[in-house]
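Hi everyone, sorry if this is the wrong subforum. Our group has a chain we'd like a structural model of before ordering constructs, and none of us has done structure prediction before. Sequence below.
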Amino acid sequence: MEKTKKLTAVLKKRKEVQEQLDAIVKSITAVGDQVKKLQEENNIEMAELISLIEVTPQPTASSSLLNVISPVMAKLVLSSMQSYIFILKVSDYFVPMGEIRIRPASTFHPEFVQKLGQFCYNSPKNFVSTVAKAQVGVFVSISMTHASFRPTFAAANQTTRISALNMGEVGVIFKKKNQPVGVTSNTITDWNFFIPLNPATKQQKKIVSSAAAELFGHIIDTCSSPNKAVTEMSKSQKNERGRYTMSLESHQ
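Answer:
Right subforum, don't worry. Here is the predicted structure as tokens:
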């Protein structure tokens, strides 16, 4: 009887140890998930910095490095004030087929990002959208129009323009309507999301480059394979592209 009590006490102690170990494993898993998220964010930041370095002019006798960097730093500070994540949800004949989660690049027009983020914050907006152009495995261009979203913002500083060229990047092609004489800003009536997939040949890379899509941001959770929804849309024939509908939502 005494022996049974001792064994029961030992078993109880072991169960307590097991619960503690389970809690430790849970904590380690949570830390691992957080580290993975930080690694992903760091990779995106490095990609943006590499792109920025590639397009930043080298200082000359007539222009100092400070003068080149100052406009860029101003954009970085302003864009950090509003940090949005955009979710582009894609449906095929109104049946959900996937979503594209986009983190805006700090080098993209912060005024446009802020206005778009506010417009669809925590509330999916159904844009009049369709697959405008596509090539299997190369790119998808999605037209985006909404009667209630026609923002105006100052002309961009083309010195720091970065193009969307690689898998995991998302570009924007603006279609601007000029304002009356004397007004310095433009109204954006409609625009396209341009998403490269995996252009392999020289000709395919030339097609992506010629689109001149300005880097809007990076697709989250895209490491070595293209987003499934993007891949499916790239396969669509011209007479099939009207089947896709999109909504856009933002979160912070």
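For your construct planning: The two ends are 62 Å apart (CA to CA). The domain at 73-251 is CATH 2.40.100.10 (Cyclophilin).
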